[in-house]
Amino acid sequence: MRLLVQWLTLCLVASLGFTAPADHKEEHGKKDKKPGHELHHEAKLDRCAGIEFDAVITNEERVLYFFKGDHLFKGFRGKAELSNKTFPELDDHYHHGHVDAAFRMQSEHSPDHQDHQFFFLDNKVYSYHKNKLEDGYPKDISEVFPGIPDHLDAAVECPKPECPEDTVVFFKGHDIYHFDIKTKKVDEKEFKGMPNCTAAFRYMKHYYCLHGHQFSKFDPNTGEVNGTYPKETRGYFMRCPHFGNQSVEDHIETEKCSRVHLDAITSDDDGKIYAFRGDHFLRRTGDKFHSGTIESAFKEVHSEVDAVFSYEGHFYIIKDDQVFVYKVGEPHILLKGYPKPLKEVLGIEGPVDAAFTCSGQQTVHVIKGQTIYNVNLKATPPAPVKEGTLTTFKKIDTAMCGPKGVTLVIGNHYFNYPSSMIMLVGRILPPPQKVSQHLFGCDH
Ligand SMILES: *[C@@H]1O[C@H](CO)[C@@H](O)[C@H](O)[C@H]1NC(C)=O
Ligand SMILES: *[C@@H]1O[C@H](CO)[C@@H](O)[C@H](O)[C@H]1NC(C)=O
Ligand SMILES: *[C@@H]1O[C@H](CO)[C@@H](O)[C@H](O)[C@H]1NC(C)=O
Ligand SMILES: *[C@@H]1O[C@H](CO)[C@@H](O)[C@H](O)[C@H]1NC(C)=O
């Protein structure tokens, strides 16, 4: 019901002519079949208001696309855009206004379809490769996936060895179908205790079922759900300001496990790690975590920082072309005279991507695009020196330096280098590690 209210509010805000949710999914327990009503194309869908998505898929760069009606959201913070900008042909079928289900083919048993995106609309399936519709498509679902019903709710790929064979898992109401890609054999399964999914996707080798504006992580073979689910999709897969009522524990859990990219990270001399994302920060002291709003702890900064580094008992927070300096220790007090222009403090024009200091050194390394500068913090005026170029990555989200060396964070992964020197000359990519799991001890 809460969803319905939110949805209604959304629609009312979006189009004043809206009268009744004649064909609403919530009321009928299935997807709406009529066009236009709720997803008027001028509608400004707000993903942070709590949306029940129709389908989710990743692109070639592993960026998630979330579909709702004739719109899609790209990544964790993209705004609603018309799906037909990216997938024009789906329009031929948009007389019903939404995608039922979608998955991405990764199987080596289907070399012709490797990396293709499949979309399901009514009884048709569309196959896209690099945003181009494959010749001969759309086709009937019964032709390409014999034994799989029309009007699906969700679909997700499950490659070996996560499933015993390369498989696509299809969802329709409470019915689950395992489609063996190689043999085309269909196994009907029962996923006891799992909600009906409106969308399903695989991300970093985990499987997620979306239902309402929540999600559950599930085992693609058994439908088993471990741990405390459902959770709010907004908290983990969207960059949304704090919403609704979350307990302190839930909130820490959200910040630890969120897939949304970090803005900044730093570790102080005691080895405490501070991570910043949107309007929140997470502090790790050994195995203990604390989470809070930037507004409450670093009030002058409000939210959305670009880079943070620690130096001689102070946090330097860089936001756009300003630097805020706070004393480490609570409450965080802004030093007199700050914020100051970044140009004045470090001699560099903003915005920057990351900044870090290594313990015992009096220089800060600043990363802007692929360039790394070195600035002596004792020198006035500051004289940035170009230290080198990052060749392995086009852009990073943030970086820090600690007892284990330099850590570069890119999306959901991080890479450790023994030193910034080795990072600059090294041609070998260190093994990627997961931010949520290995840095913050989240269980997935
Ligand atoms: C895309 O969809 C919108 C609404 O669904 C429609 O008005 C527009 O003409 C479409 N654009 C193209 C290029 O098909
Ligand atoms: C799930 O789908 C089944 C149909 O397969 C339907 O009977 C049931 O009511 C649905 N459950 C919910 C919670 O919508
Ligand atoms: C749930 O836990 C069991 C036993 O620990 C494990 O085998 C299974 O893979 C887990 N499922 C998920 C979805 O994490
Ligand atoms: C938050 O929870 C409290 C108590 O559980 C409740 O009184 C309040 O209405 C809730 N607020 C929202 C926005 O849901």
UniProtKB/TrEMBL annotation:
Where, per UniProt, does this protein localize?
Secreted
Sites binding heme sit at H290
Q: Which Gene3D superfamilies match?
A: Hemopexin-like domain
Where do the Hemopexin repeats start and stop?
A: 50-90, 96-148, 149-193, 194-240, 259-301, 302-349
Disulfide bonds, which pairs? C48-C240, C158-C163, C197-C209, C358-C401
| One GO-annotated biological process of the protein | intracellular iron ion homeostasis
**Residue positions the entry lists as glycosylated:** N196
Any one GO CC term of this protein is: extracellular space
Q: Which SMART domains match?
A: HX
Ordered alphabetically, the record's keywords are: Disulfide bond, Glycoprotein, Heme, Iron, Metal-binding, Repeat, Secreted, Signal, Transport
Under the heading InterPro entries, the entry gives: Heme_transport/Cell_adhesion, Hemopexin, Hemopexin-like_dom, Hemopexin-like_dom_sf, Hemopexin-like_repeat
Please give the family membership noted in the entry. Answer: Belongs to the hemopexin family.
Functional note: Binds heme and transports it to the liver for breakdown and iron recovery, after which the free hemopexin returns to the circulation.
Protein name in UniProt: Hemopexin
Species of provenance: Triplophysa tibetana
